[in-house]
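This section describes the prediction task in plain terms. A model, or a person checking by hand, is given the sequence of a single protein chain and must write out its three-dimensional structure as a string of tokens. No templates, partner chains or ligands are provided. The sample shown here is typical of the held-out split.
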Amino acid sequence: MDLAGMKPVGEVHADGKTFSFCSDLCAARFRTDPKRFQGEPLIHLHDVWKVFGEGEAKTEVLRGINVHIWEGDFTAIIGASGSGKSTLLNMIGLLDTPTSGGLFLEGTPITKISDDDRAELRSKKFGFVFQQYNLVPWLDAYDNALLPLIFARNGDGGLRAQMRDRFREIGLGDRMDHRPYELSGGEQQRVALLRALANDPEIIIGDEPTGNLDSVTGNRILEMLIDLNKKEKKTLIIVTHDPHIAERADQIITIRDGKTIPGHRTHAKIYTQ
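The expected answer:
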């Protein structure tokens, strides 16, 4: 990582080289698989800035962000309200573009690709679970879950059959023909999760996906997401206000005032300030 202005804390010797890290936790993570972490990450943001407005109205939401996310990781993004974490998630999920800096997916620069190409990448690579369920009120649960296949004009009957199986797996087998207003908040969020999985994405993006749920239902949704990460090797990236959720992640990215903060062991303290 770029250690400009930082004092290295952890060091690792591997393959005849010395690698320096901003925290012992980062160094320990690197030791688990040095070859993997020397390779190309799945997602890489390099010196990314996001600026809104001009002159006195200019607001720097992201200020020189550098992030690496490897395939199959569970990454948690935490920080206080207004820190820039949702904007960062939008960059990662190709929902927004940087004002400056580089954005790479599997080593390919995608900062300046067209809107159509960006939309195609999102439909193929990403599944999104938001705090607001955003279900279409006049469609039943099954059709809501299939919307990504419809938008992508994907007629794969296998994925449609798999969706019926997933409804049964999460206890909604008898709720597929119900409209959103006939479902509880937890049931709607489970439908939103199935919608995120419709295209069998490699990367699942969650923006406070349990924020509107009670603790029991929220934990159930979280366990489903973590199961997808651990059992199906989906790359999972979640914005959360909850340090206890973050502690279960492989990597924690802490954002404050538009910048990432080194030293992940202090994330809980940083969040509560």
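For orientation: The longest strand covers residues 59-69.
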